[in-house]
Amino acid sequence: MTFVEAIKSVFTKYAVFEGRARRSEYWWFVLAYAIVNGLLSGIATATGLTIFTIISSIVALACLVPSIAVTTRRLHDTGKSGWWQLISLTFIGAIIIIVWTAMDSTPGSNKYGENPKGE
Questions:
Q1: What is the number of other CB atoms lying within 10 angstroms of the CB of residue 97?
Q2: Which of 16, 28, 38, 67 has the fewest C-beta atoms lying within 10 Å of its C-beta?
Q3: Whole-angstrom Cα distance, residue 27 to residue 101?
């Protein structure tokens, strides 16, 4: 999955919490969000203009639901429930979520659906 395909896929499935997401879909979205938010925050800090802070906040809010949804689908791809995201509210839990989202898919189908890789 390419960068553009991943971003389109995440926003097409804006609030879809069922199914599975490949690593590429998840990590391309994380990269895109980090770049956009980092640029907006950097511009806001450098210029001191409040408008960039407001835009950065709007982008963060607009990406909240898709971010939770794609993380849920990514966890489903590794055979875990999306509710495990709640452990990311702690430091150790955030590290565990990063490790789980970096893991390879469970081969074949699991209780969340068919493998998106087609294996």
A1: 20
A2: 38
A3: 8
